[in-house]
Design goal:
The protein is α/β, with parallel strands linked by helices and 232 residues long. It is built from nine helices and five strands, in the order H-H-H-E-E-E-H-E-H-E-H-H-H-H. Strands 3-2-1-4-5 form a five-stranded mixed sheet, with helices on both faces.
Length: 232
């Protein structure tokens, strides 16, 4: 089912472009407003805020539905899980992110703590969505070991060295976004944004560094065409 833009006076193409610019690139709402104004589209940054809050979750859901409709879309060979500190209204929270061995973002979750309970919730949610992996790479945080032992999956855990660089690198796009947005003010807003951002990142991730120029251009064109089809 296509996304309905009924009762919105602006062209759906403009709405799609504004949401895509804001979520995919490290731009603030006012920077997106300026970019659109340069192209002859005069809208307020608060309108863009309304659009991404209204249509962002639906667009991400369409992408997720399309990607999970293919068999074995998510790899169960090796998962990488890591957590980063995030300041929300001056208080420390934790953003957990799980990616597969190719950098596909499997899930992202925000919590107030990084104890055994939070780690167990992340792992159970991940396995419910994607199945059971052959191995899980983590850092040496004891919460992972305790949670996996409780789930009888301790044999899956691998730690040490630079094994978890894949997960740590996956946080970089988020950190750029965090700076552009001047941090987050609510835990719910962070969870909402990371869920949307992960799906759009997966959709447009053409692995530029692994492909030659012609292959990358083909992947990029296919991703843009599919985006217009999914959210049109």
């Amino acid at each position: 089912m296509n996304i309905s833009f009924k009762y919105f006076k602006h062209n759906p193409t403009i709405i799609q472009l504004a949401v895509l610019l804001y979520i995919r690139y490290p731009l603030s709402l006012r920077q997106v407003e300026d970019i659109l104004f340069e192209r002859g589209i005069d809208i307020c940054h608060e309108t863009i805020r309304l659009w991404w809050n209204k249509f962002g979750p639906s667009m991400a859901a369409q992408i997720r539905k399309r990607r999970t409709s293919y068999p074995k879309q998510y790899s169960t060979w090796r998962w990488h899980i890591d957590e980063v500190f995030v300041k929300i209204s001056g208080k420390t929270h934790y953003l957990w992110r799980a990616v597969d061995h190719e950098g596909e973002v499997l899930d992202a979750m925000v919590s107030k703590k990084r104890d055994q309970k939070a780690a167990r919730k992340v792992l159970k949610r991940l396995m419910k969505r994607c199945g059971r992996p052959h191995s899980i790479v983590t850092d040496k945080l004891k919460s992972y070991k305790a949670a996996l032992r409780e789930m009888n999956c301790q044999s899956l855990q691998k730690t040490g060295g630079r094994l978890n660089n894949r997960a740590e690198n996956s946080h970089l796009p988020f950190r750029r976004r965090e700076r552009a947005m001047q941090r987050f003010r609510k835990m719910e807003t962070l969870q909402k944004f990371t869920s949307i951002h992960s799906q759009i990142y997966n959709h447009f991730n053409g692995e530029r560094h692994l492909n030659n120029r012609d292959t990358f251009k083909q992947f990029r064109s296919e991703a843009n065409s599919e985006w217009r089809l999914l959210v049109g």
